[in-house]
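Suppose a colleague, Dr. K., hands you the sequence of a protein chain of 160 amino acids and asks what its three-dimensional shape might be. Before reaching for any lab equipment, you can write down a predicted structure in token form. Begin with the sequence itself:
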Amino acid sequence: MGCQSNCGSGETEQGHVQLRPFTLQDIDRILDIEDHSFETQAFSKSQFEEISRQHPGAFYVGDLSGEVVGYILGTITEEAGELRSLAVDRHFRNLGVGRRLVEEIFNRFREMGIRTCSLKVRTDNEPAIRLYKKIGFEITKLLESEGEGDVEAYLMKTSL
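The predicted structure, expressed as tokens, is then:
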């Protein structure tokens, strides 16, 4: 699968990826994408459900003809937004889906009056780091690993 034109816009050979709010019916597909995207520290079903309840309006999916091809999950405080998880099905990467999902959640954060956003990303996740830098995030701190099996991560921040 690939992109012949409009590669930065979420356009695929099969059609245009639509962004929409998460629903509970999406959870199994999101778990599948999560499991294939993260070797360690993948979110569980209960974690996704709990965060979506606590932070309504900060969980979006990329939908292509009824199939979820990516998602973004954020959390919101009075002062800032945080990107907690972003993943795109491997067959739909490098088509702009991840970037569009980030832009969507940024718009939601702005509507809520939030002016800054942060995230944590593993230091060995070079594709994600490149994406976040292109979107305007800057590395602000190196976070030490917290335990066995954990890896170092960067704290990245941006203004909205």
